[in-house]
Amino acid sequence: MFSFLLSPDNIPFVSALVLMLLIGVAEATGLGAGLALGEGLAGADGDVNVETPSLLSWINVGRLPLLMLIVVFLFAFGMTGLVGQRVFALILGQPAPWFLAVPAALAVALPVTRVFGRGVAKVMPRDETTAVSRDSLVGRVAVIVTGEARAASAAQARVRDEHGQVHYVMVEPDNAADVFAQGSSVLLVRHAGAKYFAIHNTSASLRDAAV
Question: Is the pTM higher than 0.70?
């Protein structure tokens, strides 16, 4: 089995599964916040407009947290590739060349990721996002949901826009001396591109209104 997994033609699939596990470990230990992206925000800084047809919008990037879709894609790609290579090896005695196996696995992994994204989006309608301006989120309360925000090290936060829809954004303290632990309630005071800067939310009434 190890010789099969370590075959050069299986390296892309094994690597995908290893990367998936590393992302899981990073998220579990709070080190993966920098991998997440704000979603559904209008602007010219690399955002995904879910209304514009593209491969990313096709697999539901912008409707669900990007990291979730990355993990699903890596799992589907890695497992599809290894299962296919195993079947190929049982029939012909050796795995297929990687340059043939990789496109075949991609052809399966992308639709699987799309179907998963559409399914989850249907059961999470309150978290589905639409394009809003970044400026419209300034002044709103957010909650740190992944990682720990400190100067030069952003963490993922959840914020609700004026339409009641949830967005995930990357947040750093506006004051370099501040640190926001997971679960902290913060007030977004400005943004630079896709990244927001925040201060501690000291208002009990605003804290109660946080998402």
Answer: no
